[in-house]
Amino acid sequence: MIQFTVNGQLRQVDIAPDTPLLWVLRDTLELTGTKYACGQALCGACVVHVDGAPVRACMTPVSAVAGRQVTTIEGAERSRVGRAVQDAWRKLDVVQCGYCQSGQIMSAMALLASNRKPTDADIDNAMAANLCRCATYQRIRAAIHAAAKSLA
Amino acid sequence: MLNTTIENASRRSFMQGAAGLTLGFCLPATAAAPVAGQAASAPPVFAPNAFLRIAPDNTVTVISKHLEMGQGTYTGLATILAEELDADWQTVHIEGAPADAQRYNNLFWGPNQGTGGSTAMANSWDQLRQAGASGRAMLVSAAAKRWRVPAAEITVRDGVVSHAASKRQARFGELAAAAAAEAVPASVTLKEAKDFRLIGRSAPRRDSADKTNGKAVFTQDIHLPGMLVAVVAHPPRFGATVRRFDATAARRVKGVVDVVQIPSGVAVLARDTWSAKKGRDALSVDWDETRAFRLGSDEILARYREMAKSPGLVAHRTGDPEQAFANAANIVKATYDFPYLAHAAMEPMNCVIHLTEQGCEVWNGEQLNTGDQSRLAEVFGLRPEQVKINMLYAGGSFGRRANTHSDYVVETARIVQAIGGKAPVKLVWMREDDMRAGYYRPLFHHALEAALDAGGRLSGWRHRLVGQSILAGSPFESMMVKDGIDAVSVEGAANLPYAIANRLVDLHTPKDIAVPVLWWRSVGSSHTAYATEVFLDVVARAAGKDPVAWRLELLAEHPRHRGVLQLVAEKSGWGTPLPVGSPGSRRGRGVAVHESFQSYVAQVAEVTVAADGTLKVDRVACAVDCGIAINPDNIRSQVEGAVGFALSAALYGEITLREGAVVEGNFDTYPPIRIGEMPRVEVHIVSSAARPTGIGEPGVPPLAPAVANAIGAATGKYPDRLPFRAEDLRA
Q1: Which of B281, B326, B381, B530 is 20 to 30 A off residue B121, Cα-Cα?
Q2: Does position B614 have pLDDT exceeding 60, yes or no?
Q3: Where does the signal peptide begin and end (chain B) (predicted)?
Q4: Which of B440, B442, B441 lies closest to B508, judged by CA?
């Protein structure tokens, strides 16, 4: 039995400890906002926060989060930064297909939590791990600047 | 559990007929019947009931017959209907339509429902305006009766019906039940463009909220009670089959429930995705490769180059090309090579099927609704109407989910059959399965020659193409392959708009290449625009002409091409000097213009090429004419995205076959661009009163040639193969 907190709720799962956190979230806990797209930590569609830091859930064994705080896209609106990022994403209509956007938002939140006034270069660095096949990158950059402004 | 239910609209209208307004519930059946095989230009017969529902709580539900895969279709279609209805945008909800060839066919595709060819807005424009206007008229009529006032004195705005003189008002919901009893008007008056309040105003996307909080439901997210997840071992080469397999190790994986052979491989079924994947990876399969396809990309290309030495089937001929070349003062030649490309949507292919005693229910990012419905009916021995398809959001597609062979959908059905229908099945392709299972943009070779006469005029043009047919063997073959010419192999080449008196376009279609091919965002134009637009620049350089001025001269009879070209030239600062780059680097500006799906796009790219050949695309200015701009912000968004998508292919996109096996498997070997590689993109829209056309695809074709022409301007070298390679661009 592995125990950890997801979006403020204590959860227990009876599962092989090497199971990636991604599949525990999606299939066991039915929190499907976190997406599978590459399974190799190449695309960032599965980014969640573990104790506030962004991690790729597809390559993180569930045993590694025992006793820790996991935040997924479903919990993004619990923080001021999360709400600011979501609002900016909506105001600028960043999304297209939307499949990668949970990961984009989680990465953007992690950036803004540590850097309240990111430059374009800071954004390109922090978001380099997140692929978007629709190439919404220009709006992602603009939305992060907009969110930073609203948090200032 | 599933939190999005997409009900069959007809059943719901029957059940809710008394509670709310479902347009045309009272529409005579004859009026609702469509005309089979109806031509695109004929006035469509509408069943406007099929698109609109208004509930007593004021919710306006627009039913979309087209797939939302990122291109903004749901928002665009709802905008058209809501405009004529005068709905409050905040109350508009959008629901995917059930598969139905009668009510929800794509009006450009005869009796077929599906999304593609950037047709959604163009084929729905009249249909949804009329559906909205009918609804509005019935609400007005109901209010007039209730208030005993003339209907002509009633106004409607933002979901509120008003009579100014008596100061009475009602929201749509209050009138819904009464309106349901009104007769559907025989004809309606549509708004004039000057009165539009939503069209042209960039209504916010209705899917933004759910796509930013994790609530949007994709096929990948479906959980049904008792559902099994299937991961499949596919053959390593196209055409190989299972000889035998050993499932001992796979069955030992905890969570694995079953292992079954299907025509396309071996499927491992488990209670969850990870167990199914582990089980699949533990399989030992002995493949029979005696009939497998074993050529590599290099060998295919070598064959195509050989074929290009002899004439192909004529796709276009004007004037006397042979004479023009015989009389030429100067002949310019070039060849261009294009690789296989994978769609690589972020959501790998997947599908959920639940077989019941009544029929089967499907959850899918459904792009060829009635085609998949028919194939599933065949597989299961059902009538098409027993196959209920829930059209979910697709996490990208770029054409991949519009598969005329229904490949992954049928694969799911075969798995369901193999387990005797004992459980609902979710097929999940891992990224590598998705990238290696085929259906690529076909590899193409182009050979071009231009004749310049003694006066430096472009007097002759010969363009030969070699590549597989997408439509051969598909249900569209009879419609779109004529005299051996697949229309989508030569689109953008056969219909070259430039005024060239003597022109020949011919095509070789190799039939012995067993690589599955499919349309890839912008289809034929994904390669023909490059070959024609880059070659035109090469010839312009030989003729000493300015690329923009020369194009404008050659496009005298094509005002919409000229319109976007002039706008992009102005906005990009064409003709002004570019700021110099860092020492050793070379900078250049390049242009391309291309029409696809009746939308016109011109782009000017600015690039920096480092001494070692490293390429950076700094800026792309775009001008677009897609008729009336239903949602200008979505047009900008689509073209921004198209630039990034096309740039990914131009910089990195290549599926390589080695002895028939696909080399690339994931985003490390088939990388899209990342955020730091995204150029600054600006999109300018030509103001137009023409009927709206699509914007999902047309932003793609001009990008690679514009970049190549910028490279040419910077270095004097015009890349003759894609993707670009640093070794081709070194100083």
Answers
A1: B530
A2: yes
A3: 1-31
A4: B442
Write out chain B residues lying below 8 Å of A77, CB-based. Answer: 213
Quote ipTM for the complex: 0.98
Is the pLDDT confidence value at B47 over 60? no
Query: In the listed set A52, A75, A98, which residue is the last one of a domain according to the structure?
Result: A75
Task: Find, in chain A, the residue whose alpha carbon is nearest to that of B393.
Answer: A97
DSSP label at residue B643: H
Residues 6+ apart with CB under 8 A from B569: B548, B575, B591, B604
pLDDT > 90: percent of chain B: 89
Selecting from A30, A36, A141 the residue whose C-beta is nearest the C-beta of B675 gives: A141
**d(CA B539, nearest CA chain A) in Å:** 33
Q: How far is A150 from chain B (nearest CA, A)?
A: 18
Predicted confidence at residue B284, as pLDDT, reads 98
pLDDT in tens, B455-486: 999 999 999 999 999 999 888 898 889 999 99
Chain B residues lying within 8 Å of A20, measured CB to CB: 274
Q: Which residue of A has its CA nearest to B229?
A: A27
We report the CATH number of the domain holding residue A116 as: 1.10.150.120
Measured between beta carbons, which residues in chain B are less than 8 angstroms from residue A124? 675-676
Q: Which of B29-33, B176-180, B640-644, B712-716 has the lowest mean pLDDT?
A: B29-33
Total length of chain A: 152
- Residue A130, domain extent: 76-151
* B297-340+440-729 CATH choice from 3.30.365.10, 3.40.50.10580, 1.10.10.10, 3.30.470.20: 3.30.365.10
B124 phi and psi angles, rounded to 5 deg = -100, -10
Sheet holding B313-318, edge to edge: B313-318, B502-508, B458-467, B444-452, B330-338
Query: What are the domain boundaries of chain B?
Result: 9-195, 219-290+349-428, 297-340+440-729
The segments of chain A whose pLDDT lies below 70 read: none
Please report residues of A whose CB lies closer than 8 A to that of B430.
39
Closest to B393 (Cβ–Cβ): which among A31, A98, A131? A98
Q: Poorest-confidence range of B43-57, B324-338, B634-648, B695-709?
A: B43-57
- Beta-carbon count within 10 A of A138 CB: 22
The CATH number, out of the four listed (2.70.98.50, 3.10.290.10, 3.30.365.10, 3.40.630.30), of the domain defined by the range B219-290+349-428 = 3.30.365.10
Q: Is beta strand A53-56 parallel, antiparallel or unpaired with respect to B284-288?
A: unpaired
